[in-house]
Amino acid sequence: RVIVHVDLDCFYAQVEMIRNPELRDEPLGVQQKSIVVTCNYEARKLGVKKLMAVKDAKEKCPQLVLVNGEDLTPYRETSYKVTELLGEFCPLVERLGFDENFVDITEIVEKRLNQLQQSGCSGVCVSGHVYNNQPINLQDTTHVRLVIGSQIAEEFREAISTRLGLTGCAGVAWNKLLAKLVSGTFKPNQQTVLLPESCRDLMRSLDHIQKVPGIGYKTAKRLETLGVRNVGDLQALPSASLEKELGVSIAQRIQKLSYGEDGSPVTPSGPPQSFSDEDSFKKCSSEAEVKEKIEELLPNLLERIHKDGRQPHTVRLSIRQFSSTDRWFNRESRQCPVPPHLLQKFGKESSNVISPLVDILMKLFRKMIDVELPFHLTLLSVCFSNLKALPSSKKGSIGFYLKQMSPPSSSGK
DNA sequence: TGGGGTTAT
DNA sequence: ATAACCC
Predict the structure, then answer these.
(1) pTM for this one?
(2) What top-level branch of life does the organism fall under (predicted)?
(3) Is the minimum distance from the CB of A78 to strand C below 7 Å?
(4) Could you count the other beta carbons within 10 Å of the beta carbon of residue A174?
(5) In which residue ranges of chain A is pLDDT below 70?
(6) Total structural domains in chain A?
(7) Using the CB atom, is residue A72 less than 7 Å from strand C?
């Protein structure tokens, strides 16, 4: 396989600079509540970091310009434009967050390799960086495939730049793990291809196991218990010990990851599996406030669902309760089916589906919280999921990935 | 420390 | 429904 990982540079900041070009030359941060979630490179030069407190960022950089990024609509829309653009080259595009995509370009590479072999193999040239500056051997067809991959990655970035005005990085390798890890080696707006001989170096360059995508906070903590701190430790750990701590499935998967092995396919994301909207705040402690917050969240969500054209069959309310310790990660939720009579109304405009939904959501709320007792919430989230296509006679469903434009060349297989 | 997403159990 | 992961 040949996989490309595409990673847009400071995505929210780029979108804001397109929305308001006067911000182009300023140090710019995107703010959500009391945090600068991302910033452009002007701001980074002046010491602003991702996820920095606004207070610290202003201290470091008093000239910092901030825009509010709590409404994700512009980012979400731009994000899908990128995914759809990549989808014009190849059907196998998988989203990761709003600013990253994996593309499985194996078939495109094979096609070009055949053309190349018919017309004499000379003149193949790598695009962008080669990891470790490793020499290319054009006798090695694996090298040639990856070099072709680097050219395709360049075409992706060129298309994203000229058609959407966005810059980003790309990594090319033979699996998703490695493509993702290698894409960040040269950072803004550059790309890197990994050749097999440098795989060990790339994995060894990771100083902590949590840098391995797929090994998160919890797993890293448990591995530390076993004395595992870096990738080498994880490779060396007897698999029996690992399986005992994490279970066979996770153990086998992450130990393979530690060698740079990743068999997971690029799974086309297609349209979203869920739509959610959330808001965090210092305090919400009465039923009336909860109802107000929910009423604020719903209109935006319903509009998105309407545009999508599918019907959500499940609705969920999530909350976060205040806690001085462990402020992060104590969320609870309750969900229920959307009643069939409401389902019909989702497609229609101007019908009032809001108040019955608020009623349902307040019932879910009372399943979690005894409203007779004091409570202190710091977050409310509403999520619609279990999306089903309409019975196919209804108009208006755009059918997300329906368009198939012409890729650079095409032939029936 | 935001405002989103996904999959596995 | 939660827990883990990703951004």
Answers:
(1) 0.94
(2) Eukaryota
(3) no
(4) 21
(5) 121, 326-328, 349-351, 392-413
(6) 3
(7) no
pLDDT at A400: 54
Q: What is the DSSP string of A87-152?
A: HHH-S-EEEETTTEEEEE-HHHHHHHHHHHHHT-STT----SEEGGGPPP-TT-HHHHHHHHHHHH
CATH of the domain at A366: 3.30.1490.100
Q: How far apart are CA A144 and CA A139, in angstroms?
A: 8
Q: Measured from the CB, is A219 under 7 Å from any atom of strand C?
A: yes
Same domain, A233 and A288: no
Q: Which range marks the domain in which residue A85 is found?
A: 3-198
pLDDT attached to residue A351: 65
Based on the fold, state whether residues A142 and A279 are members of the same structural domain: no
CA of A355 to C1' of C1 (A): 26
Whole-number pLDDT of residue A352: 86
Type of residue numbered A382: V
Note whether residue A280 is domain-resident.
yes
User: Tens of pLDDT along A363-398?
Assistant: 999 999 999 999 999 999 999 999 999 876 544 444
Same domain, A217 and A188: no
Domain assignment present for residue A112? The answer is: yes
